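User: I'm curious whether this sequence folds into something compact or stays loose and floppy. Could you predict its structure so I can see for myself?
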Amino acid sequence: MHPFQACHSERSEESHAFRLTGMSRFFASFGITVLLCFITSTASAQRTPQDSSAWKKRIDSIIASRDDSTAIMRCPIITIDSTVHHPIPVDYIEVTKILTTAPSVYTHSQSGLDIGHSFVNIRGFDQSRITFLLNGISQNDPEDHSMNWTTIPDLVANMYQVEFQNVPCANFNAPPSMAGWVNVRTDVVAKQDFSIIAGYGDYNTSKLGANFNSGLIGGKYIIDASLSQLKSDGYRDASFIDEKSYRLSLVRLDSDFTLQLNFYGGPIKDGLNYYGIFPGDNNDRSNFTDPVLRKINWSETFLYERRAPEYEEFLQPHYEAITSWNINRQTTFYNTLFYIQGDGFSDYDGTWVAPHASDYFRLTSVYGFRYNFTGINDTSLGNELIRSAVSEHQFGWLPRIEYQSDHQLFSVSGEFRIHRSDHWGQLLSAERLPVGLPDNYHFYEYNGGKDIISGFISEQYFTDKLKASAGVHLIDQDYRFFNEKPFFLDSAAAALRGVPQTGWTSYQFTVPLFFVNPQAGLDIDFNDFWKGFISAASTTREPELRDYYNAEFFSLPNFNRNANGSFNFSDPKIKPEHLFDLEIGTGISKYLLDDEVLFGGSITAYYMPFTEELLQTGRVDQFGSPIIANAEKVDHYGIELNSQFFISNSVMVKLNFTASHNEIKEFSQYSDTVNVMGKEPVGFPSIIAGASIFLMPVSGFTFSLTGRYIGAMYGDLTNSDLFRNDPYGVIDGMFAYREKNILGLQYVEVRVQIDNILNTFYTSYVESGTGFFVAAPRHGFATIQIGL
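Assistant: Here's the prediction. I'll summarize afterward.
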């Protein structure tokens, strides 16, 4: 995330146009739905689906089957499997696009296309409250919980399966989640292949790639590798991207032991598009549908568009060693070692610092004397360009042991992770610079860190009709902030910060955190088709490191003060947020409506009261940085419906619908306490709906349509009309054809994707600090893949 964006945008936690009138109506609606489900199931309890291996393969493998057997807790998992055709092709998009077929999900992209900086919300909760895993390894930044899909290029094309869960309960030892988790798996399949791929589409989007799979060598080895490059001008102005990716996997398979080594990553260069567009006077939104004006890509001052030198580069190589050892028939030991290195920078507009340029960039005489340059005292330096850089390193070990008997599954897992980072900022260029300013002069610099030790213990008991489970996640972690570059305080600044005298100072602190997150669940199979379930979980999660102190913008530390006015770094003002989650639901699976139609579906009611939810207060400090505080109580509850129909083994239809209510009940630290009570947090639409149809009329040919509807949401806590994002609906389409053994080739496959078929001009997201983000009108991408 861009550092300025992180400081000057509101958290994605709000919204609503559809309002349920209260909990009574909510549970009444749920009760009626359960009753209808009961009547349908009971009336047809004697019907048994035909024994068809084709049906079983469709149910167990394709896209959205429930896989409760793989979950330690009663956490419903939706799997999206790349080994079968998916309604959305995977040639150039981010993982976020794949997830749009799952319940309670909506996404947006800063570039207007589904590449580059893209974001997913589950039940309205933004990415910082969702746990993202890659082969079971957390990818959320340990310091700010964000997920940057761009730094893992071409991930979707290399995935084997995506596991999706929209329930905030832990599986194995994932970090705490407030809204569910997503696990992308890159398992290697022994299928000999050497293929090349080329694609081109609108906005000069292109892709070149090559894939290699050795097949099984000597009965136990597999080598799998790929190279690719994706380039696009992007839909919005100056929103280009150029990403190159590599991946190499080495696998050894033995009768009771497997080893997979993964190496992947690649350099990325892309344009900055952190800010959207805003309405004109009197909330005039004519620019939202103007083909030219909606593409505007503002710089930080919102006075002009991005300049050519404003861009970012990242390189984040991953190294993984993943093993599985079947100790005996009942006991399995899983082990993962990983190292992630991330280096990158953003070059962005710095003219917004006026009239405090010399002070902000620390170029005054007192800094000149200390660092051997001629100090200046100008309000503006002219066309300032800032480089904000970060270098991160993570080491980790994730062990897990499972013991399974006839009616029991017991698991113990752990996480040991060390994270260190180096952050710095530099005035890269300006019309006026001090004489003798060193080329590597950093106006801010500090180190961050996080040490994590956690354990997850769970016990699951099951019979033919019942599954009961309980578990607890114990987390001990320390935030670290240290090695801050000293800054000078004059008398006024010293008094503000509680320092007894003028002079040089810097901060250093450690925030210890310990959480206990319990959870329990119960599943009951009423008959061969119908089941019910209930689960409860309590989750506590820490704030972001910058919530304690945002050193990049010289904010005041968010700690209480000692009697002498100095900061007490053992007593933070900001507190961890707490969530209690209750899920009650019922479902029908593998039910044969007639000889040609197989049905599965579920209904889930959830109640998720937050205490100490972290929100922006509507106030800023004297440096212009938003002040974050804990809202005493915020309620979230809703109903989710999900269904799938499989027709004649060649047609699949998926439908999902979520209605929810989200409300700030108490937020005493907000600047306008009265007007925020009863309002919706940012980014919470009350309606999320989706539908898709997938056809395979003849061998080798596939066709799909996917549609989604997202209700209104708000970009500010007061729910003003100025920052209301209107409801929108969009339909995408895809068709593909594969011909085998043609012209001496193993296969040739052609895929065509057309997004936004109805050519709708809409905005997909809004925040008051960053504006409205537009989506591209109708656009397409065509790919040819040749198996040699």
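Summary: Residues 1-74 have pLDDT under 50 and may be disordered. The two ends are 40 Å apart (CA to CA).
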